[in-house]
Amino acid sequence: MKIAVVKERAEGETRVAATPETVKKFKALGAEVAVESGAGASASIADADYAAVGAEVSADAVRGAGIVLGVQGPDPAALAAAAPGAWVVAGLDPFGQRGRIDAYAAAGLEALAMEFMPRITRAQSMDILSSQSNLSGYKAVIEAANLYGRAFPMMMTAAGTISAAKAFVMGVGVAGLQAIATARRLGAQVSATDVRSATKEQIVSLGAKPIFVESVAGIEGEGAGGYATEMSEEYQKAQAELVSGHIAKQDIVITTALIPGRAAPRLISDAQIASMKAGSVIFDLAVAQGGNVEGSKADEVVVRHGVKIFGYSNTPATLPADASALFARNLYNFLSAFWDKEQGQPVLDAEIGEAVRLTQGGKVVSPRLLG
Ligand code: NAD
């Protein structure tokens, strides 16, 4: 089995889907590995580093490959030389890039979307959303601290005391938990909210204060696989009121709320921004999915009412070396878990196979895309 690692072509993408560490491990499984020239350059991995662990490095890495690895989905036209029915294993953005998924089907390729990995214990080490969100949560706080004209920790100095920054994290999934931990490490006073009541305990365990609507009973906010569901109007109104009062007192707000397959929920309105002190910072981690914050724009610091609002279109790409290392391990953990030594290739089981497979036999087969 030949595994090809492509150079990312999307604008601003700095990551790479395999590292010398994972190439070595794929080779130990008996696979042949080819890496497209320059694939690791923006993640500080030289062609020579791949060659040193036995990869073939060439401009034509895809030729004859049965598995193509990418961070984002490669252009279907660039895969014409791959083996018939080759697997395309990457973050394929199935809802955002539907046309490309159809093109993989038409080309007879089997597209496997790593963001559809089920949230089950045995798949945790294969989950690109978790590994990349964790880094994003960290970077959001670092970037917010960078834009903030004050310090995070309380400092008692001979020239007087500086008070601690107040940071509020909205959405306490993987990114939010890391944002809480990072803001705490920098010395901020941290509070957080989510629609899933299960997060309350996690917020407290990290030393932050939970801000939750208690008045609307019977709402868990948690749907299949631990994902958030869309909330009732009643809940949304109660949450908006509680959060409005709280936001007005914050220096830093980090928003991370996502609902799969839908635009990100709007969490902060222009009126709420206006209630904040000048010099405060809002980091919108959902800006690429439509944004949690009114008026936020990807990769641009927007100033509204003296408040700086910012978010990256691709936050993990701002930490290319670590993001690539974790992404690459996710792909290796996935393929190696199913590696069949006799066949010399991976054979997926039904649970994970059906979850991640988008196309097969010339057709789109994913129920999440067909339904
Ligand atoms: P996510 O990226 O889908 O969403 C981010 C957070 O925003 C979630 O906590 C969500 O509840 C919250 N949110 C959505 N709408 C909101 C709103 N209107 N207001 C406030 N918050 C809102 O979430 P995620 O980071 O992928 O994690 C969700 C859960 O799944 C976590 O408990 C995580 O530990 C779990 N998880 C499990 C596995 C596994 O077992 N393999 C893998 C990944 C995540």
From TrEMBL:
The keyword Oxidoreductase appears for this protein: no
Keyword NAD carried by entry: yes
Catalyses which reaction(s): NAD(+) + NADPH + H(+)(in) = NADH + NADP(+) + H(+)(out)
Example GO biological process: NADPH regeneration
Span of domain Alanine dehydrogenase/pyridine nucleotide transhydrogenase NAD(H)-binding: 145-311
Any GO molecular function: NADP binding
EC main group: translocase
UniProt xrefs under InterPro entries: Ala_DH/PNT_CS2, AlaDH/PNT_N, AlaDH/PNT_NAD(H)-bd, NAD(P)-bd_dom_sf
GO cellular component: plasma membrane
Keywords: NAD, NADP, Nucleotide-binding, Translocase
PROSITE patterns: ALADH_PNT_2 (PS00837)
Residues annotated as domain Alanine dehydrogenase/pyridine nucleotide transhydrogenase N-terminal: 4-136
Short name of one Pfam family: AlaDh_PNT_N
Family recorded in the similarity comment: Belongs to the AlaDH/PNT family.
PANTHER family, per database record: NAD(P) TRANSHYDROGENASE, PROTON-TRANSLOCATING NAD(P)(+) TRANSHYDROGENASE
Function of the molecule: The transhydrogenation between NADH and NADP is coupled to respiration and ATP hydrolysis and functions as a proton pump across the membrane.
Stated name of the protein: proton-translocating NAD(P)(+) transhydrogenase
